[in-house]
Amino acid sequence: MATKTKWTKKELDYFQKRIMEKRRKLLTEMGDLRENTHIANESASTSDSTYAYHMADVGTDHAEREKAYYWLARENNYLRYLDRALQMIEEGTFGICQTCGDLISKERLEEVPHTTSCFSCKTNASKTTS
Ligand SMILES: [Zn+2]
C-alpha cells in the first residue's frame, strides 16, 4: 500500500511551527484587545468630550464590550485547541484520523489543526441516516 500512515519528522516540525505561530499571534491579539478596552475606559473618565460622547453612546459601548468579551472567550477556546494540537504532536497522534487511521489532509489541518477525523469520516459521521 502506498498510503502513508505516519507524518515525517519534517512535516511535524512544519505543523508545530505553524501552530506555535498562530498561538503567538492569537495571544498578541488577545492582549491588544484587553488593552484597547482598558484604554477606552480610561479616556472616557479623563477627557470631557470623549466622556460626553461615551455617555450618549453608552448602550453601544456596552454592546461593544460584550462583543469583545465574547470574542475573547472564543479566542480562548481556539487557544486551547492549538494547545491540544501541540500536545498531539508530542504524543504522535496529530493529524491521524482516529476512525480510519489515515492521515488527515494538510489543507484540513491548516484550518483545524486539532481535528481527530479525516474529511470523509467527519462527513460520514454527520450523516446519521442512510
Ligand atoms: Zn478517517
Write the layout of secondary structure elements.
Blueprint: H1 9-46, H2 48-56, H3 58-91, H4 106-111, H5 119-126
Helix pairs in contact: 1-2, 1-3
Zinc ion (ZN) binds next to α5.
Summarize the amount of helix as a percent range.
Answer: over 70%
**Strand element count:** 0
Bound molecules: zinc ion
Order of helix and strand elements from N to C terminus: HHHHH
Subunit organisation of the chains: single chain
Number of helices: 5
Radius of gyration: 21 Å
Span of the ends, CA to CA: 30 Å
- Structural class, by secondary structure, is mainly alpha
Please state the average pLDDT score: 83
In the predicted model, the low-confidence regions spanning at least 5 consecutive residues are: none
Keyphrases for this structure?
mainly alpha; 130 residues; single chain; binds zinc ion
Notes on the protein architecture:
It is a single chain. By secondary structure, the chain is mainly alpha-helical. It has a domain at 9-94. The protein is built from five helices and no strands. The structure holds zinc ion. Residues 97, 99-100, 102, 117-118, 120-121 line the site of zinc ion. Residues 97, 99-100, 102, 117-118, 120-121 line the site of zinc ion (ZN).
